[in-house]
């Protein structure tokens, strides 16, 4: 009888934490390698965390929250209302917008850009009745 390793069942909780970790890492513009170095693990380990294959220790999760500038509970909150610091899952526009904003280094221009986007959001809310 051949020896085979049993297929590991992925924990929904680990998958959720990993998916949030990846969303935040991408939003912050960090590569797997950069995030791994900051976290003190290899990029391969980061991939395993993000895919939910390995559990993240509390110590590493706390460090990740510091690196990503979010509260610890951001990794497991579920509703958008509870999680204002998280973009909607899969929203590539948010990621692109954040990356573009991070490319602007002049603080005065950044402030004006933020004001313009807020005005557009206010106008959109008025038009759509939200």
Task: Give a quick summary of the entry.
With 130 residues, the chain is mainly α.
Please give the number of β-strands: 0
Largest sheet: none
Q: Assign the CATH architecture.
A: Orthogonal Bundle
Q: How many DSSP helices?
A: 6
Shape: globular
CATH topology: 434 Repressor (Amino-terminal Domain)
Which structural category do the helix and sheet elements fall into? Answer: mainly alpha
Strand percentage lies at: under 5%
Tell me the CATH superfamily. lambda repressor-like DNA-binding domains
Low-confidence stretches: 79-83
Instruction: Give the distance, in angstroms, between the N- and C-terminal Cα atoms.
Output: 64 Å
What's the CATH first level? Mainly Alpha
Average pLDDT level: 81
Radius of gyration: 18 Å
Give the helices and strands, then pairings.
Elements: H1 12-27, H2 32-39, H3 43-51, H4 58-68, H5 92-102, H6 107-128
Helix pairs in contact: 1-3, 2-3
Describe this structure in words.
By secondary structure, this protein is mainly alpha-helical. It has one domain (12-128): lambda repressor-like DNA-binding domains (434 Repressor (Amino-terminal Domain)), CATH 1.10.260. The protein is built from six helices and no strands. It has helices spanning 12-27, 32-39, 43-51, 58-68, 92-102, 107-128. Helix 1 packs across helix 3 and helix 2 crosses helix 3 (43-51). The longest helix is centred in the C-terminal third of the chain and has 22 residues, at 107-128.
Keywords:
130 residues; mainly alpha; 434 Repressor (Amino-terminal Domain); 6 helices
